[in-house]
TrEMBL record:
Pfam families: ParE_toxin. It comes from the Bacteria. Keywords: Toxin-antitoxin system. This is Type II toxin-antitoxin system RelE/ParE family toxin.
Length: 110
């Protein structure tokens, strides 16, 4: 399956790497994170049905799947014949609000 990164996901990846490399002053950890994240994304794309659905953990059927990459979470959608990386978000962030905006106003959260 083809792997495609959204512009937002690419920005997220760059921000995460910059944070690890410069804010945490750990260039080697940033390199390992980058390589591990790409490996996991490619594995997801090549193993159909991998990843966890949000419905499994949040009881919300959104079409999103995710995999954990250290302290970060890669969110995917399967579209036609491709795996689309939608976002890479910090695991302790309010990622539901980042993905869906004001969740109180979204009907499938009620």
């Amino acid at each position: 399956m083809k792997l495609v990164w959204s512009p937002a996901a690419l920005d997220d990846l760059k921000s995460a790497i910059d944070y690890i490399e410069f804010d945490l002053d750990s260039p080697m950890a940033a390199k390992r994170f980058y390589e591990s994240t790409l490996d996991k994304a490619h594995l997801f794309a090549n193993v159909l049905g991998s990843g966890i659905t949000l419905k499994t953990t949040r009881d919300i059927d959104t079409g999103y799947r995710y995999i954990v990459c250290g302290n970060w979470i890669l969110f995917f959608m399967i579209e036609e014949n491709q795996a689309l990386v939608v976002r890479l978000l910090y695991g302790r962030s309010d990622y539901m609000r980042t993905l869906f905006g004001d969740i109180d106003k979204v009907s499938y959260f009620k």
